[in-house]
Amino acid sequence: MRAIDAGLLICHECHQLNRHEPELKRQYCSRCGGQVHARRPNSLVRTWALLLTAAILYIPANMLPIMTVNALGQGQSDTIMSGVVTLVGHGMLPIAAVVFIASIVVPTFKLVGIALLLYSVQRHQPMSARQRVLMYRFIEWIGRWSMLDIFVIAILVAVVKFGSLASIEPGMGAAAFASVVILTMLAALTFDPRLIWDNTDDDHE
């Protein structure tokens, strides 16, 4: 049984359970005063908007240089993929694997995973509620690791400062990639997981 079927609403601010009062146009949490909803207003629309924006920015994030290494007056720009290839060429396979997974695999999985989750909820696809919940929780958990590349670049930019001898500068690709990570994290937050249970009667457990 869903909480709404039992006449209960949960506050997204403090997670207090509140008795649903249908006669009220707006209902507020009895503990913190935050507005409570049976379902977040326009949750799917907002999540789709954030996801599509992230998907568009994912293209320049992979096409534009993510950082430029200047050494002895010569600069070399690298995209995410060319950086992975360079690391492999220097025999740094473990580091290359970490960068590839954190910067290519994880963002791609998040984009595809959220899109599948939204599509399955909207179209009532034969995907069990358990599968949807596991996917949603995994997307939320894995999201933080997408920022690994940005953290590495930030550290390198701050540490590698040797005047004209050597320096590292972030590229436009880094800004686009950071935007993708933030937008996908926001997309996961704006999605209302309670929608997963709204069509469980049609699901195959």
UniProtKB/TrEMBL annotation:
A Pfam family of this chain: PqiA
Keyword Transmembrane helix: yes
First-listed, main subcellular location of the protein, grouped into a coarse class: membrane
PANTHER family on file: INTERMEMBRANE TRANSPORT PROTEIN PQIA (PTHR30462:SF3), INTERMEMBRANE TRANSPORT PROTEIN PQIB-RELATED (PTHR30462)
Spans traversing the lipid bilayer: 48-72, 92-121, 142-160, 172-191
Keywords from the named record: Cell inner membrane, Cell membrane, Membrane, Transmembrane, Transmembrane helix
Keyword Chaperone in record: no
Natural source organism: Phytopseudomonas dryadis
Protein name per Swiss-Prot or TrEMBL: Paraquat-inducible membrane protein A
GO cellular component entries: plasma membrane
Localization annotation: Cell inner membrane
Domain of life where this protein originates: Bacteria
